[in-house]
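Narrative of activities, Objective 1.

The group set out to show that a structural description can be obtained from nothing but a protein's sequence at a throughput compatible with the screening campaign. Below is one input-output pair from the validation batch, recorded exactly as produced.
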Amino acid sequence: MGRLFVINLEGKIYTCKYCRTHLALYEDIVSKTFHCRHGKAYLFNKVMNVSLGETEERLMMTGLHTVADIFCVGCGSIVGWKYETAHEKGQKYKEGKSVLERYKVSGPDGSNYWINNEAHVSGSDADDEILQNQHFPYSISNTI
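Output recorded for this entry:
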């Protein structure tokens, strides 16, 4: 097994909720209007300190995509997915970008999103426009 190198980011960062490994910069957010089956998710231009899983075809609420799960290199937790290919013309902007599931990361201010066991969204990447009338119960817990 090779030696693990972790990139430490500066500025407003998102970290793994479990091990605090730096994952992404606030300035790299493309959209905060994504949802996963557990609640909010953010689309980023780039993420760091992750490894890619196997690619697979997933039918999401916005169409068929080829994606790979992304894992935190610090603890191995699945923290989101990367879009390899979007099969719908209108979804091509997602290609090469990554989604971090908000409840699996801590925000720049140290906040965590916690899911309610009753919250569930079918699919994996519904935009707010599609789900504008649904409510996703979660609470914000600040950690110090």
